[in-house]
Design goal:
The chain is of the alpha+beta class. The chain contains ten helices and five strands. Among the domains are: about 100 residues, no CATH class; about 120 residues, Heat Shock Protein 90. Helix 5 packs antiparallel against helix 6, helix 6 packs antiparallel against helix 7 and helix 7 crosses helix 10. It is rod-shaped.
């Protein structure tokens, strides 16, 4: 509970006033007992009942007549443990008991009751403010936890896209090269050997890409020219300074070209792929065209295209997939 020092200050004030008025040993022991109970676990009704019982025992021995101030701490503490309505009910019950005691014994003054009401109002107000701060702090902690979870989810999605785009690209290349090697094994052993060598290179590249993804791609993004290494069916034409792009933009362009190349080989059975990029004026423009079979019946439904679109749109860009003659044309634009 916040503001924990308030009841101890009140106990000290009541004890000091009683000591100045020649108190009894029972009064001193009772006030100290109240202070001890204050330090105990207060998350249940037993604590409130014990406090009320002690205050009822201390009040008759109080020579200073300030024990009523300690009764205020009961609804104050109850506000945090059992709720606002119970705290108000306890405060009202204390006021009624104080008024009944005055009426039956003739001891006390109306001003004491007024001071109790004022103190009770201030105590409940302070408790309400403290509870509001606790709720706000709890909401902030939940919001921070939600942001952290969202960030983690976005990072997982990003890594999933990177692994899919990079590993899927190389595995597709390996499959194509191995099929080529099997087809030319008897007719053209040299071509089959080159295909096996290319498949071996793709396997090494796939392993390197996986390592990069595990390291969260902290290194510089790859270049579009890497797509044409050991790939005789790919041509790359880049205008402008690719390295001047922001890393996130450069990576998005590379992954888009890589996924378009993978789809052209895997689904379009393309024999040639053209990658044209323009990075002048800070704007990234990419066009990937193949001579394959064209668009599938339901275009854009694969995880690769979906991830590619998400990556581009997060950077404020656009992605379009159109039918070319022949093949497919993938266009990406990310503004400066």
């Amino acid at each position: 509970m916040p503001i924990r020092w308030v009841p101890f200050v009140l106990c000290g004030a009541v004890l000091a006033a009683g000591l100045a008025a020649h108190p009894s040993a029972g009064f001193v022991a009772g006030v100290l007992g109240v202070a001890v109970v204050e330090a105990l676990d207060r998350r249940h009704w037993g604590w409130l009942l014990a406090r009320l019982a002690l205050l009822a025992l201390v009040a008759p021995f109080d020579p200073g007549g300030l024990t009523a101030a300690l009764f205020i701490t009961v609804p104050f503490a109850a506000y945090f443990t059992v709720g606002r309505r119970t705290a108000i009910a306890l405060g009202a019950g204390g006021a009624a008991a104080l008024a009944a005691g005055y009426a039956l014994t003739g001891r006390g003054e109306v001003s004491d009751l007024v001071m109790y009401a004022v103190g009770l109002t201030l105590a409940l107000t302070a408790a309400a403010v403290a509870v509001g701060e606790m709720d706000a702090r709890a909401q902030l902690e939940r919001a921070v936890a939600g942001i952290a979870e969202l960030s983690a989810e976005r990072e997982r999605n990003r890594l999933a896209r990177d692994i899919h785009d990079s590993l899927g690209h190389h595995l597709t290349a390996i499959a194509v090269q191995l099929e080529k090697a099997e087809a030319f094994r008897d007719r053209d052993p040299a071509a089959a050997g080159r295909a096996v060598a290319d498949a071996r290179w793709s396997a090494k590249e796939a392993l390197a890409e996986v390592r990069d993804s595990v390291r969260a791609l902290r290194d510089a993004p790859p270049s579009l020219h890497d797509l044409a290494r050991h790939a005789h069916d790919v041509t790359v034409d880049v205008a402008g300074d690719e390295e001047a792009l922001a890393p996130a933009v450069r990576l998005a362009v590379y992954r888009a070209a890589q996924e378009a190349l993978t789809n052209a080989r895997r689904h379009g059975n393309a024999r040639a792929v053209s990658v044209v990029a323009d990075f002048r004026d800070g704007t990234a423009r990419l066009t990937v065209t193949d001579d394959g079979r064209g668009l599938p019946e339901v275009p854009g439904t694969g995880f690769g295209l979906r991830g590619m679109r998400e990556r581009v749109e997060q950077l404020g860009g656009t992605l379009a997939v159109d039918q070319a003659e022949p093949g497919v044309r993938v266009s990406v634009t990310i503004p400066a």
